[in-house]
């Protein structure tokens, strides 16, 4: 597996770089014979060090984890331990997914995803006269501002596969097409620790070939 180690506000020495590559390769290699690639970003913010791990282990399977500590080694080790726990949790299902993916690939729906600027407090947008400056300039104070857009794919999954993908990638939510009927579904993390599942009533079944 190709492991890329990057530093932000931090000079990653040879010893730390070797530790990261050896640890991650051994960890992922226990579960996948031919993992694709991994990227580890080590950064420093004041007195804290942060490790962000991203591992592509197969088609559509992304593992993400991060951790912070007062030293770079413990930060990476904690993030790597979280990756290991998720791999152990889904070991059997990941192998089943890999075997199915080698037989036939399921269709995906190309889509665009956007990052919208967080809304400012209304008081922050008022000028001295009390007029909303954003509305005066743009004609609509409530029009969201898109700061980035990217290409993505909406995959055909079962609900349990979608939950696994969301957990492995440490995502707050995931949109997918339900393999049972082809309609768009969404799952998301609830504050109580459970997973919410949205399945719109009257979803249109996917056309059968």
From TrEMBL:
GO terms for molecular function: ribosomal small subunit binding. Its main location: cytoplasm. GO terms for biological process: negative regulation of translational elongation. GO terms for cellular component: cytosolic small ribosomal subunit. It is found in: Cytoplasm. It comes from the Bacteria. Residues 143-196 form the Sigma 54 modulation/S30EA ribosomal protein C-terminal domain. Keywords: Cytoplasm, Translation regulation. InterPro entries: HPF/YfiA_ribosome-assoc, HPF_long/plastid, RHF-like, RHF/RaiA, Ribosom_S30AE_C, Ribosom_S30AE_C_sf. CDD domains: RaiA (cd00552). Belongs to the HPF/YfiA ribosome-associated protein family. Long HPF subfamily. Required for dimerization of active 70S ribosomes into 100S ribosomes in stationary phase; 100S ribosomes are translationally inactive and sometimes present during exponential growth. Interacts with 100S ribosomes. This is Ribosome hibernation promoting factor.
